[in-house]
Specification:
Blueprint: H1 4-11, H2 17-23, H3 28-35, H4 37-46, E1 59-64, E2 67-72, E3 84-87, E4 99-105, E5 108-113, E6 117-122, E7 127-132, E8 139-149, E9 154-163, E10 170-176, E11 181-185, E12 193-194, E13 204-206, E14 209-216, E15 223-229, E16 234-238, E17 251-257, E18 260-266, E19 272-277, E20 283-288, E21 297-302, E22 309-313, E23 317-322, E24 329-335, E25 343-346
Parallel strand pairs: 17-21
Antiparallel strand pairs: 1-2, 1-25, 2-3, 4-5, 5-6, 6-7, 8-9, 9-10, 10-11, 12-14, 13-14, 14-15, 15-16, 17-18, 18-19, 19-20, 21-22, 22-23, 23-24
Length: 362
């Protein structure tokens, strides 16, 4: 027989998650090994998804009212509307209508509860931990972000808020989950911006940087895109992505397409235009025109292995666009029941344990 350590570190570590979850029932030793935080981190680093940002989208996390779902997409499956799985979780009976999803990173989801808590949750292994999040009496209209800094092995949560004392002042606080310490970050680049509209969505995470659309103070809805580098903890303005074409400004939102920071615009004629900022600084475009009736598009995530991308249409519809066929094709995947907007996030399944993010809880 091969030694257990050799099987674990050279063979088992390369198996897909579904097989590993089945292997837990082999013995108590296997269950203990495969459930350990160290194994979860090591397995993720061996997976093809371990990159600064994996450009291939295979899964989505969907928040619909008080319900959570994972949608798994298979390029080879003609019936692509069968991969939706409802998740069962109870966060110490915290009211789900007080909880919203900030972002996902490395298989972990960060959620904020307005009662004063942050939750880090891995829905694949159904484990979560809760952090107390101090309420700031001096702040209002907060927007959030969540991401990972690989060089220091630390997850960070970012909160931007308007000051109640000075509405033109933006306050930025950063939480290190490794130390569980909050600190305030000052950056003079924020002085000319306000949070109008930015508080409606969380920061978009791409390659250890969070991005927001920000409004210039005193401007007539003039916008810039700011990125917050989680490692250096400073803001930088993104060039070339926001254009001065006001007729395309009916709806704008940030998205990640193929690992690239992108901006989607919906025109008053119902056309959808997506600008993708490449690493070289070049901007590529995808146009989806009104004959597909996608004027209610409010979120996009791409791409799958075969070059398709997901969109949220209106309040509660999830669909798939194939921009490569002629003519371009839109397929409705699901129409969720209930009220209010659904929220979709790209999601990479992993076995990373939430307990591994906090040095204070090891």
């Amino acid at each position: 027989d091969l030694p257990h350590d050799l099987i674990t570190h050279c063979i088992i570590i390369r198996l897909p998650i579904k097989s590993l979850l089945q292997c837990k029932s082999i013995s108590k030793q296997w269950y203990s090994t495969l459930s350990s935080p160290h194994f979860g981190i090591t397995h993720f680093k061996f997976s093809p998804f371990y990159q600064p940002f994996n450009p291939i989208i295979c899964s989505l996390f969907v928040n619909s009212g008080n319900d959570y779902f994972i949608y798994s997409y298979n390029d080879n499956d003609d019936e692509c509307n069968k991969g939706l799985f409802k998740l069962d979780v109870d966060f110490d009976k915290l009211p789900k209508d007080k909880i919203f999803v900030i972002s996902s990173c490395n298989g972990l989801l960060c959620l904020y509860c307005s009662l004063g808590y942050l939750i880090i949750w891995n829905p694949v292994i159904n484990q979560w931990i809760k952090f107390v999040c101090p309420m700031l009496e001096c702040c209002k209209n907060s927007t959030w972000g969540f991401g990972y800094v690989s060089c220091i092995d630390d997850y960070k949560v970012v909160r931007m808020s308007e000051s109640k004392v000075n509405p033109n002042e933006i306050l930025v606080h950063v939480l290190s989950l490794r130390t569980e310490i909050w600190k305030q970050v000052y950056d003079e680049k924020l002085c000319k911006y306000c949070l109008r509209g930015a508080s409606l969505s969380a920061g978009l995470l791409i390659d250890e940087t969070l991005y927001w659309i920000m409004y210039r103070q005193g401007g007539d809805y003039e916008q810039d895109v700011l990125g917050f580098d989680l490692g250096f903890e400073q803001f930088n303005m993104v060039q070339n992505l926001v254009q001065g074409d006001s007729y395309l400004g009916w709806v704008r939102f940030l998205c990640c397409m193929g690992g690239c920071l992108s901006m989607s615009r919906v025109t008053n004629r119902g056309n959808v235009s997506i600008s993708m900022l490449k690493q070289s600084g070049q901007v590529d475009y995808i146009g989806v025109y009104r004959d597909l009736d996608l004027g209610l598009c409010c979120s996009a995530v791409g791409f799958t292995r075969d070059g398709k991308f997901f969109i949220q249409l209106g309040e509660r519809e999830l669909g798939l666009v194939d921009p490569n066929c002629s003519p371009k094709k839109y397929t409705t995947l699901f129409k969720f029941k209930g009220e209010g907007f659904i929220d979709i996030k790209s999601y990479i399944p992993s076995l990373v344990s939430p307990s591994s993010v906090s040095g204070m809880q090891e």
